[in-house]
Write a sequence for this structure.
């Protein structure tokens, strides 16, 4: 066996070897948290279930997998492997799917939940890190009510926008009363903290003649024109889960909503780079359990 002693090599060779080492070291160090968390393919073991940290900087211990087919729903984009969440989130989606089926509203098409142990993702989301967030398409599929979608269909079907960006209003061909009923059913579930939708969708709901007593949880946010984003409250007993500020009182149909259609909202000033928020120290053990 031949061994190489750096001490007995020439200066140019030593420099070249040192540069190779530095390149290797830097490539390892440059591996982002997201890349590390995305490589985990299963939840932690054991009976403990805990959402840890912020929705935008956290992790999940004892996560559950959402079955890709269930009553009233089917999971899309299976290649992303983001159908994991806190058991409360899995139960929420299963319950909402049953509501959709019972009321003949069309099958729910489920987008991203989170990764097996939560944490940052390499693409697509800044949040969804604690197993308490889920994206649900506005497309309510009558076809998916009748049969199981193929793997190809789950990858190639598009989540259609329901908003006309020019008129800042709903596209009548893409929106129905069933969409409103699904949002209402989700908002009335006590475990739900808030639901993000495009401001034009919130405006449509505010103009509806139906009851407004559930609109408080419906919050306008950028994009969210082809899906709604459900965020659950921190589960009981999860002391390391950081709550958001409470949703403001009222139905949210006044001045706050009007701001979203202002010049300021449409032309936001470039924000300085946000400082990186470190994951809670508890996530270190979650990562390597």
């Amino acid at each position: 066996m031949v061994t190489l002693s750096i001490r007995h090599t020439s200066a140019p060779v030593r420099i070249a070897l040192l540069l190779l080492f530095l390149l290797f070291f830097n490539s390892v160090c440059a591996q982002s948290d997201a890349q590390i968390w995305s490589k985990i393919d299963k939840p932690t073991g054991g009976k403990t279930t805990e959402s840890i940290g912020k929705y935008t900087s956290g992790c999940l211990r004892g996560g559950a997998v959402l079955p890709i087919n269930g009553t009233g729903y089917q999971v899309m984009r299976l290649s992303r492997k983001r159908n994991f969440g806190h058991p409360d989130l899995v139960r929420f989606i299963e319950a909402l799917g049953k509501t959709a089926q019972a009321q003949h509203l069309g099958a729910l098409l489920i987008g991203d939940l989170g990764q097996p142990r939560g944490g940052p993702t390499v693409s697509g989301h800044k949040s969804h890190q604690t197993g308490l967030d889920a994206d649900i398409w506005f497309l309510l599929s009558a076809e998916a009510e009748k049969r199981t979608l193929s793997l190809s269909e789950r990858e190639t079907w598009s989540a259609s926008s329901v908003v006309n960006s020019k008129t800042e209003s709903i596209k009548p061909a893409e929106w129905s009363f069933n969409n409103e009923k699904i949002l209402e059913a989700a908002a009335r579930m006590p475990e739900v903290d808030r639901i993000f939708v495009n401001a034009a969708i919130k405006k449509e709901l505010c103009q509806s003649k139906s009851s407004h007593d559930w609109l408080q949880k419906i919050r306008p946010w950028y994009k969210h024109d082809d899906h709604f984003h459900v965020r659950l409250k921190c589960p009981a007993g999860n002391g390391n889960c950081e709550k958001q500020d409470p949703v403001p009182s009222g139905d949210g149909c006044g001045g706050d909503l009007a701001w979203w259609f202002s010049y300021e909202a449409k032309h936001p000033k470039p924000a300085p780079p946000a400082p990186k928020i470190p994951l809670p120290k508890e996530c270190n053990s979650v990562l390597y359990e």
